[in-house]
């Protein structure tokens, strides 16, 4: 989720670009850069920094390029480490065409091979760099025509801003599966990844639709499809201030990030899963042979990431038929664990910097295990230390409470389980296809679920006065229960514990009374009947029961005190949907209690000490 800005108008572009990049840093700050067409000099000045925008400002101090057309970028790395060469903008071989990009070009490897064979020279490890070279390949003096031809060959997700030295009065933007807006000023115009960047300059914006392209001059913008059909663009008036704009109009980052989950999941899946259920990880390209001899999978993590590890444990055992163990990394490091060269150690960490998880990773490596870091941060310590990496590609998560990245972690575990199953010749092809299609349908299912946000908010209002909660589930529903309880306690400070349905009657059930509600996960699963029996036990103890159920569920209506209904789906999808629903529930409970949702007390986003 990188930040993009483009400017064309009578003012000096450099200060405007730098100021906008500062405001866009919340979208990522691995590295930054800008390109300005220097007035009168017939050159494009390109400046990059391998760190935050402040370093870029320092580099440009006293030597800012002078010009009226420019593009800038602040990077959240996906393909290629956060280094100066990988920072955007990227240029073609001649330096005429410059491009900034947010998204992932799925077919970049094949395009790069084709362009290299045609003589193009690549400087970076990024997927983005194929774009200027592809445009160069088609360029015959008409920049817009070359852009149209090039973009028709790209698969994946892109929001692009670009210009060509030969066209000093033209700034071009295009989007597919990633947002892009055109800011309409007085005699000047902008292109940006989001409204935050342009808010001090204009309140009028044109929202680009999927697969559309904007040809922007200082006086206006023309929108068309990639094949050149004109489009009637929608102009909106934005009343947000900068802080509202950063949150996309949501009251908190947590809620914004919950709403980003469909895109986060799509990005985790992007380019990795084919229709037959085969999975390919570019940065963890291990021969299947290695998985055939694998003895066990160790999954290490902390907090929410440990819960994702618990989901991975079940999926890997079930689909790949491999013994798998999810382990609290802080405990693992002080044990004398049985790890051998035949094991696979999977470390699950959003930040890639959690101290206990890193020590666990290095302990497993020291004992010879093959290791892979599943992380959201390219170039993080975990990604550097492990033998391979599986990136979530979810974009930065700012709220301390993890939401979209938990779901992306669970999805990445499903991909890993499918990869291991494929490598070990497990799962019939029909089952693999079925799982692949249900994973692919997830983003849409989550969008559907989020339409019931007002109903979930009403339930939160009804339950917010309780001081204790028990969350109960079985199988993947047990993971949902543990994570649901953690989400509630960390942002609302209400005591909540998670239990398996079977375990409840071995102790936890003693806590129940009319002031101790149970959140029971009763969605689609092979143990749903057992959960219904559990609900009977809870009701008998006079505990209020909020049952999370699939659409059309009749048995629990009238038995549970309340029901939270999610779309009907298979077991894995139901677990994901129930988790998202309980994130929304926790959010509204905390809101009701007036808590500081994005900055819960005593917690930090990344725990880099033991
Ligand atoms: C809870 C939460 C934490 C983290 C934990 C591990 O919402 O975010 O429990 O999951 O601190 O962090 P990472 O995943 O960065 O290793």
Protein described:
Helix 17 (476-492) runs parallel beside helix 20 (571-592). The radius of gyration is 25 Å and the shape is globular. The chain contains 20 helices and 24 strands. The chain is α/β, with parallel strands linked by helices. The protein folds into three domains: 3-245, Glutamine Phosphoribosylpyrophosphate, subunit 1, domain 1 (4-Layer Sandwich); 253-440, Rossmann fold (3-Layer(aba) Sandwich); 451-592, Rossmann fold (3-Layer(aba) Sandwich). The strands form four sheets. Strands 3-2-4-1-10-9-11-14 form an eight-stranded antiparallel beta sheet, with helices on one face. A six-stranded antiparallel beta sheet has the order 5-6-7-8-12-13. Strands 16-15-17-18-19 form a five-stranded parallel beta sheet, with helices on both faces. The model has no long low-confidence stretch (mean pLDDT 94). The chain binds fructose -6-phosphate. Residues 302-305, 349-351, 354, 357, 401-402, 490, 606-607 line the site of fructose -6-phosphate (F6R). Fructose -6-phosphate binds at residues 302-305, 349-351, 354, 357, 401-402, 490, 606-607.
